[in-house]
Amino acid sequence: MYPRGRKTGFDDCDTEEFPQPKSSQFRIFNPKDFQQQFNSKSESGSNAYHNDPHSPIGLTVGKSKFTISKYLSKGSFGCLYLGTHLGTNQEVAIKIERIDCEKPQLHLEYGFYKKLLQIPKGVPKIYTFGPCGRWNALVMELLGPNLEKMLELCGGRFSLRSIIQLVIQFLFLFRSIHECGLLYRDTKPANFLLGQPSTSKWWIIHVVDLGFCKEWRQEDGQHIPYQENKPFTGTVRYMSINNNLGHEQSRRDDLEALAYMMIYFFKGRLPWQGIIASTITKRYMKICQSKLETPIETLCSNMPNEFAMYLRKVRSLNFNERPDYGSLLTPFVDLLAREFVLDLNDKVYDWTQTHRIKPLYLRFPECNPTKPISNLNRKNYDGPDDYPEIYSRTLS
User: Fold this and answer.
1) What are 222-270's pLDDT values in tens digits?
2) How many Å apart are CA 381 and CA 221, to the nearest integer?
C-alpha cells in the first residue's frame, strides 16, 4: 500500500517553473542591499501581526529578557520573529508556537538543538526556551540569508566551484548530525543559512528547522528497525527514493537528498519539478517514478563524474549501514584542487565575487577590498585548517 503523505513542502514552489538565469554574471553580495530587500518584503507581514491583538510582538522571553519586535516568516512549525536582548540590544531570532496547538513541536526541536550542541560549527546558538504569554518561544542566534535566497541572487544557479565547496561543508555537517544520533530528514535550500555577513562565520552553512529530525539510534544503542508504509517527511523535490516509497529513513537518505539539492544548484531545476496530479499522493507517486526512471547519467549530465559516483554510492547503502563519509568527501576535495586555482583561505563563493574577475576579493564593509583574501587577518577569518584531516593532502 502506498502511504498517504502529509503536507510537508507541497507549497515549496514544486509545481512552478524555476526562472532561468538572466545572464552568466554573478552579482556581488551586499549585505545592506539584502537587508533592505528583506525588510521591504516582511514590512506588510510585520504590520499585520503587530496590529493583531493576539500578536506576541512586545512580549519578553526568559530571564535574560529577550523582547519580540518584528514578524519575519512562517515555517513548517511555528512562526519566526526578530527579537532583541534588552540589556545588550543584540538581535536574535525567536521561533514561537501556540501552547495550545494540536501537535506541539517546538519543545522537540529545542531538544534536537541541545543534542547538536557538541557540533563546533553549522548549528545556531540557542539562548533560551520557555513560555511567553500564550506561546512557547525558542530564542536562537540570528543568521544570514538562506541558500534559496542566494540562488536567486546568483541568477538561479551556482557555479561548480561554489557547489563543490558547499558539498564539502554539507558532508561535514551531516556527518556531525548523524554522529549525534540524529537524522535531519528535511533537506532543502531554505533550511540552510549563512552566518551573519558582518561576522567571521559569514561563509559557514548553518542548519535550521529541526522539526522533522528523528533519532536513528535507540536507547539500547541499536539502529532503529526498517519499516514500510511510513508517512512522507520533508520536501518532495529533494527527498530520497526510499522516503518517496514510504520506507523508514536512515543516514543514507539525508545524503541522497543532498545529491538532489546539489544537482538543483548546478542545473537550476530537477527533472521531476512541475509534475501535476489530482492528489498529493498521486503526485508523489509520479515524482517517485521519475526519480526511479531517470538514469543517474542523465540526472548528472554535464556535471563532473564525481557527482554521479556520489549518488551511486549513497543509493547503494544498506538501511542501517554507516556511510563512509571520508570516501564520499575525498573525490570532491580532489576535484576542487584539480579544476581550480585555489587559495584554500579565500572562501570565495558566487555571492562574494563578480564572474571571472581575478584576484577574487571579499566585498564586506569590514574588509579592505584592495587586499587579497590571503592577506587578511587569519585570526578573524578561520581558514581551511578547520578541517585539517581533509585539506592536509591538498595543501601538500
Assistant:
1) 999 999 999 989 999 999 999 999 999 999 999 999 999 999 999 999 9
2) 38
Say how far apart CA 54 and CA 50 lie, in whole Å.
Answer: 9
Together in a domain, 259 and 362: yes
- 368 and 267 in one domain? yes
195 in the same domain as 70: no
| Marked catalytic residue, from 52, 100, 186, 253 | 186
Reference 107, options 185, 210, 188, 180; nearest CA is 210
Would you call the peptide bond into 359 cis, given omega within 30 degrees of 0 as the criterion?
A: yes
* Residue 83, all three cell numbers: 527579537
Contact at 8 Å (CB) between 160 and 349? no
Q: Count other Cβ atoms within 10 Å, centred on residue 117.
A: 11
Q: In 3D, which of 26, 21, 30, 23 has the Cα closest to residue 356?
A: 26
Region of 167 please: left (phi>0), alpha (psi -120 to 50) or beta.
alpha
334 catalytic, yes or no? no
- Give the span between the Cα atoms of 116 and 391, in whole angstroms: 24
Q: Which residues of 78-94 are buried (b: 16+ CB within 10 A; e: fewer)?
A: bbbbbbbbeeeeeebbb
Q: How many domains does the chain have?
A: 2
